[in-house]
Amino acid sequence: MSDKALSDINVLLTRPVAQSAALVAAIHALGGHACELPLIEIEPVTAPDVCERIKACILNLDHYYAAIFISTNAAKIGMQWIDRFWPQLPEGLSAYAVGPGTAQVLRNFDWPVVMSDRGVTSEDLLALTGLKQVDGKKIALFRGVGGRELLAETLRARGATVDYLELYHRHTPDYSRDFVGDLIRDQRINVVVVSSAQILEVLLHSLHQDVSQLDNIALIVPSERVRQQALDAGLTIVINAGGADEMSVIRSLRAIAPTIKPNMN
């Protein structure tokens, strides 16, 4: 007998384009429906001076104690850079990942990865043994342009030298004023998945901060920090998946499926 555990689920996926194929397939295989609406677009940096700074860090990776990747995009684009200049990974360079999806990208390159099994936040990463005693050590932090400073600030306070490798820009797609709200209604969405705090902010902005449009709709988020942000914004059904990867999202969808009602709007 086939497993149709998500037969009443209509999911809105909001991560960047081309990053949801496996999740869409998994949802459909379980009888659910998935609608993709990217609320963030990823664009690799191209400015010559920025690329030269990245290249300089990459060429000197063997001088670093650790490389930290804060997202799947950072891992994918970062590995493109590393693969360009390092036929083999620098010996002795430790890799740290925020979350299982990011870790899997790195493991595809046969790179042993350290990640927290307690959560997917900077705080969880900072609690790892290998990042506690870093006085005098150099750390490369792969990320997008901008974002939280907690990770770098804490490591620097612990005595490390932290170099940012800011590999990509995040852009908000230019949807018309009521496009997102109309899509949620027309597609009878009853679950929305957001994979970052920034995507949550874009979602709320797209709805003009009118959270009533998400009444009776479950919101799946990747961490307790983002869950609290959603609750503070007035959302009421918010589930911490403990990650943004496919397995974490599917596990959460399975868990809430018996409580989800069809959206009749």
Sum up the structure in keywords.
18% strand; Rossmann fold; 5-stranded parallel sheet; 2 domains; 265 residues; elongated
Describe the structure.
- With 265 residues, the chain is α/β, with parallel strands linked by helices.
- The chain folds into 2 domains: 10-40 and 173-259, Rossmann fold, CATH 3.40.50; 43-170, Rossmann fold.
- It has 10 helices and 12 strands.
- A 5-stranded parallel sheet has the order 2-1-10-11-12, sandwiched between helices. A 5-stranded parallel sheet has the order 6-5-4-7-8, with helices on both faces.
- Strand 4, helix 3 and strand 5 form a beta-alpha-beta unit.
- Helix 1 (21-29) runs parallel beside helix 10 (246-256) and helix 3 packs parallel to helix 4.
- It is elongated.
CATH level 3 topology of the largest domain = Rossmann fold
The count of helical stretches stands at: 10
Count of structural domains? 2
Q: Give the overall average pLDDT.
A: 93
- The H/E string reads EHEEHEHEHEHEHEEHEHEHEH
Distance between the termini: 32 Å
Major sheet characteristics: 5 strands, parallel
Q: Which architecture of the largest domain per CATH? A: 3-Layer(aba) Sandwich
Structural class: alpha/beta
Strand segment tally:
12
Uncertain regions spanning at least 5 consecutive residues? none
| Overall helicity | 25-40%
Across the major sheet, the strand order is: 2-1-10-11-12
User: What is the CATH level 1 assignment of the largest domain?
Assistant: Alpha Beta
